[in-house]
Amino acid sequence: RHDLYPTVYALWKVPSLLPALTVHAPVLQYLFKGADLMFPGVVEVDVVREDECSTVPITSNDLPRFLKGEKWQVTLHPCTACSDAGSAGAVAVGCISRNWAEVERRADGVPSGKAMDVIHFYKDHLWGRGPKTHPPIAAKMRSAAGSGSNAGAEDTPDPSASSSSS
């Protein structure tokens, strides 16, 4: 963990900087509380072939063969983020927890166990040291993440925030 990792701010500017594991909004509440990413929470994975990027379901046998320690980002699934295509932007950055060859699969084909050691996430203390801007399509992310999404952003103005629910 002594390597340099891009911040979510950098990934919002250059999304192609790291490959992505894509999650649905309910997973964010765990990431925003500091949890590592588990494979059952991942729905899609970036696949790059011949300078073209596409995504494949996590249950596919056509996944990239990632290696332990590789840097990846976590993005929000576009169906969760909005009705238009496109990611909501990086919500976390980390390193892959184990080599692809070591990953076990459940009976339904979904890989099991920890996928990524999360190093930095949207609204953590590192995010709070920056300009405190929000990722693309952030309103949906914040409402999905619930109360766990405000770590490190005590008095941050948030123009798209709705009233909090208890």
Structure description:
With 166 residues, this protein is of the alpha+beta class. 16% of the residues lie in helices and 25% in strands. It has helices at 8-13, 28-31, 78-81, 125-128, 138-145, and strands at 20-23, 37-38, 42-49, 52-57, 71-76, 90-96, 114-121. It has a 7-stranded mixed beta sheet with strand order 2-7-6-5-1-3-4. A hairpin with a 2-residue loop joins strand 3 and strand 4. The longest helix has 8 residues, at 138-145. 31% of the residues are buried.
Features:
5 helices; alpha+beta; 25% strand; 166 residues; globular; 7-stranded mixed beta sheet
Quick summary of this structure?
By secondary structure, this protein is α+β, with helices and mostly antiparallel strands. Helix content is 16%, strand content 25%.
Beta strand count: 7
Measured on Cα atoms, how large is the radius of gyration? Answer: 15 Å
What composes the largest sheet?
7 strands, mixed
Physical arrangement of strands within the biggest beta sheet: 2-7-6-5-1-3-4
Low-confidence stretches: 81-85, 147-166
% residues in beta strands? 15-25%
Shape: globular
Secondary structure category:
alpha+beta
SS summary, helix count: 5
Q: Which percent range fits the helix content?
A: 10-25%
